[in-house]
Amino acid sequence: MDAKKIENIELKYLTVDDFEDLKTATLESYAGVLNSYWKKHHIEDLTSMFPEGQVIIKIDGDIAGCALSLIVDYDSIDDEHTYEDIIGGESFKNHHADGDVLYGIDVFIKPQYRGLRLGRRLYDYRKEVCENLNLKGIVFGGRMPNYHKHKELTPKEYIEKVKRKEIHDPVLNFQISNDFHPVRVLKNYLEGDTASNEYAVLMEWDNIYYTKPRKKASTVKTIVRLGLIQWQMRPYKGLDDLMQQVEYFIDSVAAYRSDFAVFPEFFNAPLMAEFNHLHEPDAIRELAKFTETIINKLKQLSISYNINIISGSMPEVVDDKLYNVGYLCRRDGSFERYEKIHVTPDEAKVWGMQRGNKLKTFETDCGKIGILICYDSEFPELARLLADEGMDILFIPFLTDTQNGYSRVRLCAQARAIENECYVAISGSVGNLPNVNNMDIQYAQSAVFTPCDFSFPSNGIKAEATTNTEMILVADVDLSLLRELHSFGAVKNLKDRRKDFYDVIRVK
């Protein structure tokens, strides 16, 4: 499947109305094996007894994958159980709403949609359900589809070789890579599974947030994980070489289940070395020719790695005018563009960069965000306008050459967090580019800032990278704390504004 052709990805609760499409998708996924699909009364029962445990992924309206689950009382399950024991025949009698473990009974991705990491998306959803319902963990019987090729090994020996990467098993490898660990071998688990010789591995994922006294359900995502990429400026052989490094960093922050990957301003500047023989205005217009290709690749990566990507910024030519722009590439396949409103005197004088005119907040699956490019952070009116639209997190991709310039961005970012009662994340570049005029050296320390109140760090610094060192910075921010701050903070910067005396407004 070409990710560039995807316009929308949705993770939705399964309903009875989806039955016929689900049947078709199941048959395609299980190679047309008869009786491999669930009957309509099964779907009616599952969606009625545990709706949040039954989900599908739709790509442009087509069912691409599915995950079905039950809640079980784990202590009541026999150690040597079978698949039939779990589903209880036609009745799903082992589902208990007050149970303590999520048991996966089916998961698949249609063949034409494999390779987009949709399976990881379904597993991540199950983990969130497990955490929200305060369950101990997730278990299921994992098939061993390549075991029939190694019958000389015991199941235990086979599993050990898979773990050591001596044998490739697509199912077990995938599950282990998603933090599941084998507990025991189950014999005669799934009748007719000749590829696994009817063995299965009981796989388990432990919920480290589980608390025994009570169960707590929540449908709103409040903990958001930010992945900031402190990018090293270095020579690259070409666009493919640079994008390899881009994907490496996206993979790194996605491995920590980050919700956002944030790149710095002009992170693609090393590609300008090829045009260093040209005058600066001509060289950066040549760099702008890479922008569309880079953004298309970032759109694909946001889907593949299930992460929202903030592209930092890049030069872009529109109607023969040069702008400093960036793109928000959401993991559902959608994207939006933003512009630098205030260009620096150097950008205007050396490159002929034009001032942008687009300012708005962006809806995401992790709250409402704003994005300001570098110098824009030094103008408090912009962040205040975004705060008035309900911004939770402000992202500031930046590029500064000296500590003076960096200090301006950092101190203003901290001020924006306090005065607008929001989180602010800044991401910059380090290193040097001796073969690129006007981009010689960089200074940065990426960081995440918070308001200064009792629920936050006393100095307003949630996390910060090592100065002038290539690295990633991963930090969690709790949006529910912002809601409490707005109403119960020691001071209320947003509510206490004297709108009867002054205001910040847009010029139409």
TrEMBL record:
Q: Does the keyword Hydrolase apply?
A: yes
Instruction: Provide the GO MF annotations for this entry.
Output: hydrolase activity
Amino-acid biosynthesis as a keyword of this entry, yes or no, is no
Q: Which UniProt keywords apply?
A: Hydrolase
Which residue intervals define the domain CN hydrolase in the entry?
224-479
Output the Gene3D superfamilies linked to this UniProt entry. Answer: 3.40.630.30, Carbon-nitrogen hydrolase (3.60.110.10)
For the N-acetyltransferase domain, which residue ranges apply? 9-208
Domain of life, per lineage: Bacteria
**PANTHER family, A to Z:** HYDROLASE YHCX (PTHR23088:SF50), NITRILASE-RELATED (PTHR23088)
Specify the protein name. Answer: Bifunctional GNAT family N-acetyltransferase/carbon-nitrogen hydrolase family protein
Lineage runs: Bacteria, Pseudomonadati, Bacteroidota, Flavobacteriia, Flavobacteriales
